[in-house]
Amino acid sequence: MSNSPVVILTALNLEYQAVRQRLADPQVHRHERGTRFEVGTVRGTSCSVALGLTSKGNHAAAVIAERAIQEFSPAVAVLFVGVAGALWDTTRLGDVVMASHVYAYHGGTSEDDGLKARPRVWEAPHGISQLASHLARLNDWADPAPGHEEAPQVRFGAIAAGEIVQNSRISAEAKWIRQHYNDALAIEMEAAGVAQAGHLNGAPVAIVRGISDRADGTKNSAEDRSWQPKAAANAAAFATRLAVELVGEQEETAMPQDDRVRSADWFDRRVSNTAHNSTVGIMAGSVAAAACT
Fold first, then answer.
1. How far, in Å, CA of 60 to CA of 35, rounded?
2. How far apart, in whole angstroms, are the C-alpha atoms of residue 290 and residue 246?
3. Could you tell me the residue range of the domain that residue 171 belongs to?
């Protein structure tokens, strides 16, 4: 069974801090080339997480993701967590978007009759997507919403990753994205780099983004400054819950078949004895929960 941590990377300190607040006893781990990670466990669990900061942009994200993968050999997943801009009004501020696939939308060729798209695309691992969809249906991952605020929801769809801060709905770049990538729900600047690093190293990658703005000219406004920490916190909440469940599934799968059979037999006998003796208080959840409870 692998004891390697789940790697979680962020681009901004705000996003980093949102994840770090969910870790118990984070300890500095210094890469030989100076990159600093912090390794801790998700609070209340035994799930180990290696947290790192990449800075902005796909290139920086790819380099640090590669370094993290080589350093920690994550068998479960590399999660990139942070904020993003919504491309459609149907996605609410504060909601979480998990990438079903990532577009590197700046690939293209310039010809006499215009710019032709040459995108690269990375799909999310099927197992991670399935588990994330299950957690979204359970809808118990978010922190309690203050006052009368609606609880954030998780949406699944494409994320577009480029090299510019997109802050307009009417610019030439905005029109290009609508023309060629109109199924993308959100836009940001790091997912393509992390996805490529995962692809080259055989590491499963998932992108989790909280929606902090609408990429419509309101970035850096008072509303954006208000929503950024909320969106980062929501993305961190869903990502750490996903990490916990991924590690739990891995450990359950890694359990020898004989042990799984014995556990099932023990549970059946315990339930039978309980029914016969009319006792109460069995913690059935402890049987099914793997190592992250």
1. 12
2. 10
3. 6-254
